[in-house]
Amino acid sequence: MALAVAERHVAGSVVHLTRAESEGLWNLSHEAVSRLEHSPSFDLSELLPDVPRTLRTALTDFREGTSDSGCLLVKGVSTGELPSTPAEYGSRALAGHPTNGTLALAADILGGLIGYADEKKGDLFHDVHPVRGEEHRMENSGSVAFDFHTENVHHPLRPDHLGLLSLRQGHERTTATRVASVRRALTRLTEAEAATLRELRFESLFPTSFTRGTSGERPSTGRHRVLFGAPGSEFFRYDSFNTRAVDPGAAQALRALAEALEAVCTEVVLEPGDLLLVDNHIAAHGRSAFTPRYDGRDRWLRRFYSHSALPGWARRMMAGARVLPATTDIQGVF
Description:
There is one protein chain. Strand 9 (227-228) and strand 10 form a beta hairpin. This protein has helices at 3-9, 19-38, 53-62, 98-110, 182-185, 191-197, 248-263, 312-317, 327-330; strands at 14-16, 71-75, 113-116, 126-128, 146-149, 161-168, 177-181, 202-204, 227-228, 235-236, 243-245, 266-268, 275-279, 283-287, 300-306, 323-324. 45% of the residues are buried. The protein is an alpha+beta fold. Helix content is 26%, strand content 19%. The strands form four sheets. Strands 1, 2, 3, 4, 6, 13, 15 and 16 form an eight-stranded mixed beta sheet that branches.
């Protein structure tokens, strides 16, 4: 689906930065990244009012969780000079790069930039690019089709929002980021299917990004709902690879949800400088397949997580600023 079609699907949720706004954000990003590099407990609050008003207003509105699409596309974000697309997992090729400042500013307007102690060593910014030998991993290092999922489905403190900044499209220039809103999908479910999804009849495995370097079966959550929230303002918790039903009736409802999400999917072929924001409680996201060449010009995105209201007990358990404790340390709290 071409970008123009995608924009019609998310009508009212596309922001085009002017050249002046893009330059202003880039200059501010330099200041933000210098603070980030100087102190791990960096405070960007005094910089946020200087974020271009168009972007700041769009992000402020988006964080309210009233979106029907669950996504917001920002076009015209500066990315600066870039090295080759990294070849290794966790390379940190853009440490100190101004795009880190851009993402931190966006994350802090949405809530607060966070990482997870047991995912990518607590990194706050994640490189999304193919890694040789990991083509079939259902992570940001893979290149096979990645079906719909909400981020960190297993975690009691899942991100409220995530952002994906496109740095390089790759060779095919057709690889799509796929987004599907549960609020739109619900119109295709029966009342009985929706009611089943609201019941404690589902469990989710820990994603492989949280279990790298471990052996044996991946741990699982306790039973949870897939669908929750008041009618008309629904949210969900779902991962097509990791969420499992505990009985046949729940499995049927899960299949119906998967089909409904596919039917309402929006595909966006992100161009360099496109920043896609996703409400992680309203929309699931995924990726179409592509064929990497591992020549330094492959597809490359950067990702961040944002959380708007970390509880005090979690903040006091955090070993590092903005990095949530290991999942096993807080599993069962909710």
